[in-house]
Amino acid sequence: MKIDLLVVGKPKAGFVIQGVDHYLNLLPGLASVRILAVKPEPLTKGADPDQVRRAEAQRLRKRLKGFGLAAALDPAGEELSSEGLARRLTQWEAAGINRLSFVIGGPLGLDPGLIQEVDAVLSLSRMTLSHELCLLMVLEQLYRALSVKAGRPYAK
Predict the structure, then answer these.
(1) How far is Cα 118 from Cα 20, in angstroms, rounded to an integer?
(2) How far apart are CA 35 and CA 146, in angstroms?
(3) Which end of the chain has fewer CB atoms within 10 angstroms, the N or the C?
(4) Do the Cβ atoms of 6 and 101 come closer than 8 Å?
(5) What is the pTM of this model?
(6) What is the rounded distance in angstroms from the CA atom of residue 52 to the CA atom of residue 43?
(7) pLDDT-derived band at 68, boundaries 50, 70, 90
(8) What is the DSSP string of 130-146?
């Protein structure tokens, strides 16, 4: 399975960059995973948050065309355990889905219109997470889920 993490902006925090690199190095052999970043909308003083999300959503939509199943990450989405994510990945693969895109918004989250357009909406937590931390957590959970799916042990 090919998995794309479509994100608004690139991580800037050093610990996130290190963690992202760590999991990207662990994932080959389990799945082909790549990160595709779109330019964030400038967050100037007085910027309309809805307008910012809509502009970022337009950039995300352009990158999503032809990318198979799209799953947005949003606090209101479905929460899965690592094993549940492994089962979901197996179900999607059995349904013939060979390309999956996880969509991660910027600091203001995802545009509600884009969330309604995707195939699935998943949540890493009901708590608010930074978009950078979300990227790292998705990679970590993909590593766990793909390890379970492959019958490999992973640290619990």
Answers:
(1) 24
(2) 17
(3) C
(4) yes
(5) 0.92
(6) 8
(7) confident
(8) -HHHHHHHHHHHHHHHH
